[in-house]
Specification:
It is a single chain. The chain is built from three helices and 13 strands. The chain is mostly beta strands. It has a twelve-stranded antiparallel barrel.
Length: 330
């Protein structure tokens, strides 16, 4: 047997095992996720300011229930792997720092509400997650942001925000987002695992156009169960899909990202209309840390987020908020 023949046989013998490792087993479970993000959990002085609240309800399909044309699209974009489709409804509320003014300060963040329907195609390999999301909705009074905040403030006896009459008016919103996250094992410490999750995101649309680079580090057990905790965009998000690889999986994490923002409808006046606006800052950073717990087909996550200034004249230092989610497999 010559060297060339021996080399060929050795390569052929390795390929099946490599293919087996790369091929994920089908997952027949659908996943429901309820998530809330709120600035009032960020400190002892409970107050609504800037990014006040984000609420999201999402559904993600089993890997066995993806239409053929979307499977073909995912394979064209990302190669072989397991695909899912997801649909979620999300609302976000933004207010100025000073909500006691009936006529909002023109140099403060505008009042704005956002209501979006998000349609996601997700592709998983053994060590990567790829996401393509189309978001369609609107910005303005029809989002229901003012009604939700005012009703909740009445319920808990908190002073209302007085300047909603000057909010950004009804405007269609759209965004197309593509993201890739890599899962890179680092090593083990006894029975505990560590890994890194570098991620790259690009989004275009009249809602927000930006590029984002981020990295998270995790420490726990069953890290291959997901790709990090979910977040409402923008920000580092591992997505809703998870499949526990042990009866009880958990981790703690810390991460950071940098965003280069080319346009933000929630801060800037639309090119097609006037309205309240401020001057955005093009470079925005975030730091986050928290935990995830997976057991009995459920995943509970929490992230504490600190965000740098988003517009010129923003006061108060880092904006901080919490993000919690509960996902259930059916």
């Amino acid at each position: 047997m010559n060297i060339r023949t021996a080399t060929t046989l050795a390569v052929l013998s390795v390929l099946p095992s490599v293919a087996a490792r790369a091929q994920l087993a089908p997952d027949t479970a659908a996943i429901w996720t309820l998530q809330d993000e709120n600035a009032s959990v960020s400190g002892s002085n409970v107050t609504d300011r800037l990014y006040v609240n984000g609420l999201r309800l999402g559904w993600m399909s089993p890997t066995t229930k993806v239409p053929n044309f979307l499977q073909d699209l995912a394979r064209t974009l990302w190669g072989e792997g397991q695909q899912r489709v997801g649909i979620d409804l999300a609302q976000q509320i933004y207010t100025p720092i000073d909500t006691s003014l009936v006529i909002p300060d023109p140099h403060d963040r505008p009042y704005a509400g956002v209501l979006l329907g998000n349609f996601t195609l997700l592709g998983d390999s053994e060590d990567t997650r790829s996401v393509l999301t189309l978001s369609l909705g609107l910005i303005g009074p029809a989002s229901g942001a003012e009604n939700l905040q005012s009703s909740f403030h009445n319920l808990i006896g908190q002073e209302p925000a007085l300047g909603w009459g000057g909010q950004i008016q009804n405007t269609p919103a759209f965004q197309l987002l593509h993201e890739r996250t890599w899962r890179l094992p680092i090593g083990t410490v006894g029975a505990l695992e560590t890994d890194a999750l570098p991620a790259l995101t690009v989004a275009v649309g009249n809602l927000r156009t930006y590029a984002q680079v981020g990295m998270s580090f995790r420490f726990g057990q069953g890290l291959d169960s997901d790709f990090g905790v979910p977040r409402l965009r923008p920000g580092l998000s591992g997505g809703d899909a998870f499949r526990p690889t042990r009866p009880f999986a958990w981790y703690i994490f810390a991460g950071a990202d940098g965003q280069a923002v080319a346009y933000d409808e929630l801060l800037e006046s639309s090119p097609f209309r006037g309205g309240p606006h401020v001057s955005r800052i093009w470079d925005v950073g975030e730091m986050q840390g928290g935990f995830a717990i997976m057991a009995y087909g459920m995943r509970l996550t929490f992230a504490y987020v600190a965000q740098t200034q988003q517009f010129n004249g923003q006061s108060g230092g880092l904006h901080q908020f919490g993000s919690a989610s509960l996902s259930i497999r059916f």
